[in-house]
Amino acid sequence: MAIFLGSCSEEDLSPESVIVDSNTPLNEFDEWLMENYTKPYNIDFIYRADDREYSMDHTLAPPNYAHSIAVAKILRHLWLGTLDDVKGMNFTKAYIPKTIVLVGSGMFNSTTVTVGEAEGGMKITFARINDLNLANLTLGALTGASTYVGNGTESTGMIKTAFHEFAHIMTQTKPLPEEFSLITPNAYLGDDWNTVGTTPLAAWTAGFPTKYSRHSPGEDFAEIVAIYTTRGSTNWDDLLAAAGAEGAGIIDTKVAMINKYLKNSWGTSLDDMREAFEVRAADLDDLDLENLND
Amino acid sequence: MKRITIKLIGIVVPLMMMTACLFEEENIFDKSAALRMNEEIKADIALLTGAENGWLVDYYAEKNYAMGGYAMHWKFLPDGTVDIACEVAVNGVPARQPDNSFWDVKAEQAPVLSFDTYNRVLQHFCEPSQSDIDGLAGDYEFIIRRNVDMGDALVITGKRNGNKLIMRPVKAGEDPMDYLAKVKDFASSVITARNFDFYVNGQPIGTTLFTNGVKGGLSVRAIDVQTTLPSGTEGQEAVQDTTVYFAFTPDGFRFNEPVRLGGSWVQHFVWNSEARKYVCTDEGVNMEWVCTDAPPQFNYQAFIGDFTLSYGGGGLATDETVFQELDVSIEADVQGESYRIRGLLLPEFEEEYAIYARYDPIFGLILDAQQIGQVDDKEVWLAVAIWNGTATYVRNLDYASLKSTDFVEVEGADPHGSGYRFKLTDNVNGTYPSQPSYFAYGISFRTYPAATANGDRYDIGACSDKYRCYNMSLVKK
User: Which CATH architecture has domain A26-184+196-286?
Assistant: First the structure.
């Protein structure tokens, strides 16, 4: 039988690899991303449209190059930087989504627009980046604070979205105690959050920071983390005032439970995160959003 | 029995093993799929960048080509960027001015040409909005089809919406921008030629209509065709009622692929301006579309030269019977499209600010309210405003235009003289029939967005103290 084993002739392995180098020339932004995202955090930062990474349910426009540079620098400074400052770079590297995808346009649904999306902690998509006003980019626009409590409307902001999605990763990694969903157990609306006539004010007085937080306990948690961290104490106090005694009481209960979870599971708190964020936000004006060589 | 079994195994097993070796697989290709794909991509990149003067493309948006085609120039640069220009102004980019963005050829099931960062020109046809969530349904990712025999041309198919585009390399010595300009000039020259009678072999068989729909600020290039032909069964006729989409060329129009019309496969048509008809130039076809619309009233050249601008009234104390005159000169700006007017401003401001007017084959010269400059945070506007005869501007600034409506021959002492008469038009509500042609000619500062025409007046106009003018006319010197 041993004769048979050797009877099929061996084929030489091809000396050529089937893995071929990209034909795309690297530009200075690609090199910057390598140094600032890929090497330190193992993140693939995708700013060139790729429909394998894009939602097939939407027609999407690709990102503007200049906007992509600005967004990369802002996320590096305000998002990754804040997480680094709170829990150290190894923490950020361990939990940050490994793929960041930029989309130029909004992800338009029939009556709403999706501005960010996270897939199981692996990938985060930031949409509508071409709409950022680079000439006058304010912290309020990035966090959505500028159009929040003051005029009773809601808009999200890229940085708020980033912290919102990161909050999901936290609870996907270490689950939020069940009790959180029992604070306002009957007030979650699921996919009807936008159609069952709730104004922002109605959401606040019912004990939610935004209309969208009524989607589900998970979204409620993520909204509180993101807003508390990024929109400043004045804005938060305004929210509590607008929510009235009952609404504010509920929100405070949620905040206390979130703090307990953050402390027990992650060794941090909402105030730690806000403080670190505000230190970084104070430098926003000095951030050069065009030049890659600073 | 046991022995037999063992013997049988002894025979069968070696046979099976041998069989396995005899049918050794031979490679059909000498290289792996990945390497072949890579070579293909390299060849595509070389082909795209190799067209020294770039490529001309009739770009069709909307599914099933339903936007019609717009001529574009794509110039692929070796640094991985591409310059894209269109025959018309889109997305704030003037006609023929390129916008630069990145491109790539990516390995998918076939090589895919991808314009993968935002290009303002191309994305006008692709990007979505809340009111139109698939936008104009153009594509920016295309499957490259090199297996189609098109000579020098390259066929690419939109990945998402499926329109097939034909890329033609610009010929040596051909100026692609000149091509785009000619396409645009031609398109605007036939804007009033919309209704046609359809002739095959000299026999009328139906009508065609160039439709006037607009999408995304651009006209939809569609033709409704109605023909009646013998059906083949005696005494019966076949009525064809169809819509076809086209792109303009410098001297006519073409379809992206041959289309069956009036019993023939046709694709190319050339305009005969003398006879005002389109003639099909495809071989073996005798087809003409004869225009049944009146020719345009005004031609572009008529408004170029030195003129006297006369107007009644002026100043706050208006008197329509007292006529004033200004010497103005009108120059070509973008040929066939716009003019620059000199003489409306005080001489020291002529260089600083430019006043433009549009050409339109139906209305001739149109002077729109327009921003003419910027000083600090204030915008400087030429205000064309409609005055309701009392003290309120009913429409102002960007709502109003002055349009020439007819040419009047005058004998005798009419202070206007023979010339082009202007009517003030409310661009929202239409011409004001009951009002005289007021022309608020004051050139004013205003902060944006302002609600009134007044703003802070700033006297840079040659007759700023007479900022209401009636019954304007342009008289050629």
Answer: 3-Layer(aba) Sandwich (3.40)
